[in-house]
Amino acid sequence: MGMVDIFKRRMKVFTLAFVIYLDYKALQQREKFMRKSKRAALWERLHERNAKRVLSLMIELEGLWVKLGQYLSTRADVLPNAYITLLKQLQDSLPPRPVDEVCQTIEKELGQSMDDLFLDFVKAPLATASIAQVHRATLHNGQEVVVKVQHQGVKTIILEDLKNAKSIVDWIAWAEPHYDFSPMIDEWCKEAPKELDFNHEAENTRTVFRNLGCKGNCNDRNPANCVDVLIPEVIQSTERLLVLEYMDGIRLNDTESLEAFGVDKQKLVEEITRAYAHQIYVDGFFNGDPHPGNFLVSKQAPHRPILLDFGLTKLLSSPMKQALAKMFLASAEGDHVALLSAFEEMGLRLRLDLPEQAMEVTSVFFRNSTPSNEALENMKSMAEQRTKNLKVLQEKMKLNQKEVKRFNPVDAFPGDIVIFTRVLNLLRGLSSTMNVRIVYLDIMRPFAESVLDGNISKGPALNAQWINDTPVHSDVEAKLRQLLVELGDADKILGIQVHAITNCILHKHVNCKY
């Protein structure tokens, strides 16, 4: 791609972004002078008009913009239906690349002719995505495989698209400070180029395969946390080519086939959610791109989810994994102190002390998913809550309306959280697309609890003298010690320091080691 092509590509993106922005701002101003009965129809036409514009340009440009479209198409919980309906096309397949180009890449990467490599190679692709094209083939030993081949020249396109996306996000943050997605695009710019190395994806696939105990090899300390999913085995890889075990499955958007095979969509999405909870909280290594196109459903009962495409993954440090688990449990319990403590541990710093608003924002991350037909009501509810929080912020900081719009309450936003929140949003969008309701607090809680449980030293269980041997000064203290012994023997103590006060003068400490 030459400089002229890069310039043309950039101008198309910026022009469309500007046109759509002006279109929405114009209606925002016009609706102030309209009857309420006319507003809904105008907004619907506006969404449809701009969704068509977005889809057309994404198909034309491909590259990173297709991945963005795939992400947006899953957000049925917050985006207007016009965008969801049109952008869903990007989940299926893009126009295929010429098979001669594909074969040329395969032979160059593996150093052999197609006849030497394959007994049979199906020229019609199974799918064409933003980065690669997938073909079915048969090896000379009779094994059926899929061959994922990277598009020629796609690396240059992706890197250019990242620069353009960064510029647009910066511009939106300046024009509409409430929509500052800079931390997200910064993390994406760091992680997305890794998807261009298929050796990296192959190793990621093997790691998640082992972690989730695929093919009956679950080694989890807690058997209840084992998940029932399938992941294809890696056969061979190079930087631009990946050969995987072939798995026959149903696409999630193939509603007729799902119904014909009797697939329980509720159970399916719950198991996908459990698989991601395991990756995040137990393994600390997870796939960052769970859009519907990256899943299949096995045709054989019990119709297990098949997880695909591990190009974009995230590795969490042990402290970050524990902090995310603490944040989840604090949100589940409504514990403001624990939530702010988790924020501090993960490096998320706020510019002001608003624990209730912090709890509300965090609760949004882990809220129950809603079917797509409730998306409009969900959007209204979130907008009302945002307005309420802005009023609290305005009163707290004594800001005028213009100042509060430009005030960012977040002082530091760690990159690790970006991919984490992206996964939560994609999972919620997936459940909305599948028209099921998922209670994330119930499904994810056992996995989050296991993280903290696994990092507790079992003092009472391993050390009979875990209570300091100091003199007992009262019946109350004796009873308290007995209670602590019973709790310790039952393995119910995480850590405790008891401060007993007698007659408001005598202070005694009973220290429990953990």
Radius of gyration: 27 Å
The parts where pLDDT drops under 50 for at least 5 residues are: 503-514
Can you give the helix content as a percent range?
40-55%
Number of strands: 15
Biggest sheet statistics: 6 strands, antiparallel
Beta content comes to: 5-15%
The assembly state of the depicted protein chains is single chain
Shape: globular
- SS field, number of helical segments: 21
What does this structure look like?
With 514 residues, the chain is of the alpha+beta class. It is 55% helix and 13% strand. The protein contains 21 helices and 15 strands.
Observed structural traits:
single chain; 514 residues; alpha+beta; three-stranded antiparallel sheet; 15 strands; 55% helix; 13% strand; ABC1_dom; Kinase-like_dom_sf; Mito_struct-func_regulator; ABC1 atypical kinase-like domain-containing protein
